[in-house]
Amino acid sequence: MFFLSKFLPLLILPLGLSILLMGFYFFSRSKVHLFCAFSILLIFSNGICSSLLWKFIESPWKRINPNEVETADAIVVLSGGGKTISSKKSKIFEWNDPDRFLAGLSLFGKHRSNNLVFTAGFNPYNKFLTSEGNLYKQEAIKFGIPEENIFITGPVKNTFEEVKEIKNLIRSKLFFEKPKIILVTSAYHMKRAKNLLIKENIDVIPYPVDFRSEIIDLDFLLNPLNWIPNSKYLSSSSSALRELIGRIAYKSFF
Length: 254
Description:
By secondary structure, this protein is of the alpha/beta class. The protein has helices spanning 2-7, 14-28, 31-44, 47-58, 99-109, 132-142, 159-172, 187-199, 218-222, 231-253, and strands at residues 74-77, 82-86, 91-95, 116-121, 150-156, 180-186, 203-209. The strands form 2 sheets. The protein has a 5-stranded parallel beta sheet with strand order 5-4-1-6-7, sandwiched between helices. Strand 4 (116-121), helix 6 (132-142) and strand 5 (150-156) form a beta-alpha-beta unit. The longest helix is centred in the C-terminal third of the chain and has 23 residues, at 231-253. The chain is elongated.
C-alpha cells in the first residue's frame, strides 16, 4: 500500500506522463505523442500554472492568529516538516520546513490545549531513521514544553494511518470519546486530513500553515520569469497535482 500510494502517482504526474508519451513515440513514431509530451512539460513548468494549482488546493484556508483559536482537548501536529540524515554511525535531524512544529508550540504556549500530540511519521525503507514524532518531542522539550504534556502516536506512513493512530491515542491515553482537536498541518493537506478525522467522529478545528501559493496580481502576471519553463515550477506543479490525486484516491477508497 505504501509503495502504491507513493510511487504509482509518479506515472501520471507531468514528468512521468511525458516520459511515457515519448516512449510511445519511440515505438509508434506518432508526432501526436511527442507533441503531447512537450505540451505537458511546457504547461506545468511555468509559474502561472504552478501558482494557480496551489491557489486551488489551498483554498479556502487562510492564515490564523493563534489567539483567535478556541481551546480544544488536544493540539495535533502531523508529520512532514523534518528529515533525518542517517548512517549506521550517526543521525542528524534537519528541518525541511518547521512551520507545523512551531505552530504546535505556539498554540500550546497560548494555552489552546494542555495536550500536544505529534504523529510518528517514518520512512519504512530506512531502518536507521527515528520517527519524526520522537524528533519533534525532543525538540519541543528543548523549547520548554513539559514532557508529560507531549504524546506521540504509533508509527505511521501516510495520512490514513495518521488518522487511525490519532484516534487510538486520544481515546486510549487522553480518554476523550468525542474529542475536539486543533489540527496543525500544511494548508494544501488540511482538507484531506480534516475529512478523514471527521469520519472518525473527531471534531476538528483547522489550523493551516505552510502556505505555498503566490499572490496572483498584475505584477505577477507581467513578470516574464513566471512564463519561462523552469524545473522548480515543474516540481511545484507536480506536488500540487499529487495532492489532488491523493484527495481523489482517499475519497474513493477511504
